[in-house]
Amino acid sequence: MCTHTPKCPSADSPDREAAHVVAAHPEQGWSLLCNAVVLFEDTGELLPNGRVVAPHRPLAAV
Questions:
Q1: Rounded CA gap, 14 and 38, in Å?
Q2: Could you give the CA distance from residue 19 to residue 4 in angstroms, rounded to a whole number?
Q3: With contact defined as beta carbons under 8 Å apart, do 55 and 48 qualify?
């Protein structure tokens, strides 16, 4: 799906969130990346194979 140079990381790459945004819907809280990952504003992800990645925001200092 990626036509950028250099290529964006694949959906199964640890740095998959570094891919370019191809569709942003901040009013709905999600963006589609060029590697077909849906990235949610709470940092959760939906991968193209249907796998869900739980939100992974850093914990606030106590």
A1: 15
A2: 9
A3: no
Per-residue model confidence as pLDDT tens digits over 19-49: 999 999 999 999 999 999 999 999 999 999 9
How is residue 44 written in tokens? Answer: 């959760």
Amino acid identity, residue 13? S
Global confidence as pTM: 0.84
Residue 31 pairs with which residues in a beta bridge? 24, 39
The verdict on whether omega for the bond into residue 6 sits within 30 degrees of 0, i.e. cis, is yes
How many whole angstroms separate alpha carbon 2 and alpha carbon 36? Answer: 9
CA–CA gap between residue 29 and residue 14 (Å, rounded):
22
Name the residue with tokens 């901040």: 26
